[in-house]
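Researcher: I'd like a structural prediction for the single chain below. Treat it as a standalone chain; there are no partners to consider.
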Amino acid sequence: MSVGFDIAVSEIGVEASAGIDEWLARAFSGRPIVEYAYGTPPAWDVVAEGGWDTLGVAEQDGGAGMELRDLIAFAKVVGRWLPPMPLLETIMAKRWSEAARRAEGPVTVGVASESGRVIVPFGATSGISLLVGTGSDAGVQAPPPLAADDFAPSLRPAEGGEATSWTTEAARELAVVWGAEAVGCAERMLDVAVAYVKERQQFGQPIGRFQAVKHHLADALISVQEAESAVIWGAADAPRLTAALEVAFDSALRTAEIAVQAHGGIGFTWELGLHVYLRQIVTLRQLAMPLAAIADVRD
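Model: Treating it as a single chain, here is the predicted structure.
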């Protein structure tokens, strides 16, 4: 375990997580995710005015000074809602880069995937800046023309251009935060599945009373708990980051698959929106694992 890593969430982490949950609930609660994931995101001014984008910046640099464990808790809440805006990407970019802190509007990053494609979350978002690198002398720039990819609507990835250059610490931390976001996605899917099986009637009773359904959802609960533990493990034990995130994403996807199955045929429909969470987890894995590999290689 890394020296100085506290597995407990601090007071600022608890408060920030509760605060973002409250704000996102006001913004999206009652609306199906397929409506807002494909729709217009909240104005970025709300993020900047609330100081959400500087939560990870050190206090001496004008931020809230949240530690990585706090950012894990925060990212998990974001994953439960999936606001279609580069909130986590901007928080992490400003954590590492003075140039990003000076940029107006949101900031994103480019990641070279295992296939060689450069994936830029929210790359086609109007007014967004692209972080060139996480070293002390790296700046930001306007993204070049990128090819939009609609696979993960709440992440709005685009492809092309040059990847951000990474320090070991920055690569590690963003990989961990994206892993935590995937855990939040899986948690939400499990909650939706549990609510559904309590209401869906078959043979005169809720299907959640059937032993087979109970066992599947119990397995899903174990998997999502494994995923969260693995993310924290990866943050605390840097040399095992890749192994930990493999467990985290495998477990999150296992939870997601069970949640879809619990809904039967309706689980595959566009209107229900479970595909939004599932596709987010898949894409986050494509982004996080190359960063974990960078960190491993440089250790």
